[in-house]
């Protein structure tokens, strides 16, 4: 028995902005690649020195804030939740972060780095979703977390 290969989707910045309410300077995902339904995806963040957080977050040694890495993971996961739900009858209006567990920061992220948010669905029930995420620069793990989110409809 041969398996049919999974067709992986993508979302450029315009599609990401359709899926998420976040905008600059708080949008932490530039694009999403390798979307496998609502099961997994990889979000990309290009870290640049001209971002506002670097004026106050260790100005002489600019380090991308860990909390923003977690936010990027949450936004990446939220985008695929929304994309999945948009194909159903119920349209979500917001995605709310509900839980953050098992967070670990491994290495600093600096301007010039390209962060990949590798998100994998753990489970979901109705409007609640749980993901396991890893933030990587190249092959180096820089942060990890488990994230819970809730889709809200109006």
Oligomer: single chain
CATH architecture: Roll
> What's the mean pLDDT score?
88
Order of helices and strands: EHEEHEEEE
Radius of gyration: 16 Å
Number of domains: 1
Give the overall shape.
globular
Properties at a glance:
alpha+beta, Thiol Ester Dehydrase, Chain A, seven-stranded antiparallel beta sheet, 2 helices, 7 strands
Q: How would you sum up this structure, described in words?
A:
The chain has 154 residues and is of the alpha+beta class. It has a single domain (9-152), classed as Thiol Ester Dehydrase, Chain A (Roll), CATH 3.10.129.10. The chain is 18% helix and 41% strand. It is built from two helices and seven strands. The protein has helices at residues 13-19, 66-86; strands at residues 9-11, 31-36, 40-46, 94-105, 114-125, 128-137, 140-152. The chain has a seven-stranded antiparallel β-sheet with strand order 1-2-3-5-6-7-4. Strand 5 and strand 6 form a beta hairpin. The N and C termini lie far apart (45 Å). Mean pLDDT is 88; it is low at 1-5.
